[in-house]
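The aim of this short unit is practical: by the end, you should be able to scan a pair of folded records and say something sensible about each. We start with the first protein, listed as its amino acid sequence and then its structure tokens.
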Amino acid sequence: MSVELFSPEPSEPDPLDDRSALLADMILAFQAAAEARGTPTAEIRKGQVALLDAFGLLGDNEGSPPSVTRALEPAPPTDAELIKGFERFSRRRGLRPQTILVRRIMLDGAARQLPDGLVGATKGQLETWLDRRSLSDRGRSAYVSHLKAFYAWAVDEEELPNDPTRKIRAPKYRRTVPRPIPTDELIRALDAATPQMRCWLLLGAYGGLRCCEMAGLDREDVLEGEGLLRITQGKGGTERVIPLHPDVMAALVALPMPESGVIFRRPWCRDRWPAHSLSDVLNTYLHALGIKSTAHSLRHWFGTTIYQLTKDIRLTQELMGHSGPNTTAIYTKVDSRTVSPAVLALNVELRHSKPES
């Protein structure tokens, strides 16, 4: 981030020109080193002011050269600089690479589409931008959360003077019941799958993995000697270990797996599959077969089936990688086979409890 420095006019000789030139060189060197370390703009500004003070050239003191009596006003940060700074901050916090990528893509889009960019955005501009994206309540809530995190960081680091999202409220959204893929459609999808697609289908249905967790798998996470699968890219940066289903292991062997490193790579560039791209490919495959379910419905099938087989909500929570039982509780609401007899029994009880005439 550049700081505008003022040099003395050639037509106005300054007895302190040598000292001013030295000071300018020191300020520029300090600025370059600080920016290379990722120092926030506000801290760079404080350091520059301290140098001026050390030279006795701070403020409008009598005898101060014109080049430094003017205020050192930092150039306003650009959207690109703020996004990079926020990305560095997110990495230091240990956020998942997928979360950082999603936030960067969203912020890049906002910077291009907002009338005054991210730096000059107002509450009204941000809400209009969100409205035009036709997001679901859940999607809008996620976007608002990302924007609030970005502006909170920018204000806290004194990069921006105020937070335009302070009075923006995320929408409330109702918690829906799971929509597991029908078992016959899961079988049909498996029958037509390529080796890689079969791995993804089974990891979702027999392991409950999210797409980001599939994309994050490395060979070292497959602990076949112990019959376990380690998931390191869980939601919220959590890790868990789940049983490795024999069919999943067989599919991974048939892939085949590499000796080490990333398991799922894009064939055209050999990079790790991004989670959103993996999800898109999986959804496209299912829809091409006439199956309306999505990649996430495989995870719903896993959670629903595990609970139906065990009736153990705590076990289901652990296998699903939920942070608390409230999220897992939705899987207890879908087993009509156990609910229906209970409801019918109410009628039986009422009938047998009728008073005798």
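Turning to the second protein, read its sequence before its tokens, just as you did above.
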Amino acid sequence: MAVPFAGALSLRGIAREKRYNNYSTSTDPGNNLSLTNMSTGTQFGLINTANSIANRPDTSTPHAMSEWYNYDHDKTSLTIPTVGTGTVSVSSGILSMIGNVSATGGATVTARGHVASSNTTAPTLSNNQFTETHPTGGTGQYTTSRSTNQILTAPSGTTYYIRAYATNSQGTAYGSSRSILITSQGQI
């Protein structure tokens, strides 16, 4: 029996057909049924017997009929989001930081924002001096801001490194670092 590899696959329908539409144990003594990937021609066995290891093309794909009921063959692997750090600028005493989440990694982005530190060139959520969180998740460009009064207390010559971040169920991703310098005049 051949079914399309991409798209809906009703395994209950296949099982029903096997049981009730002329697939008997006399013509199919092993009580086996296989599916063929229409794109590659690879056959996957749907096997009701326990001693079916030799018929499996790999161990990641289910082969007993009961294993297929909750299997999503089109499932993509989840990864951390893809995030980039945009421009960092100062205007009227406000430090504005732009970030962009270009991909969710297949899971909902639950937090995004910026982290900054003068102690490391690659600040993270666990080693930063300040964090600004954007109120919404998702993809697209976002901006966070912070009053420069809160960072101008640093000694002159201090460099802050700022990175965008985004978090989903798989972890947190960071964009590249941008830097700002506290000058001797108490300016950025």
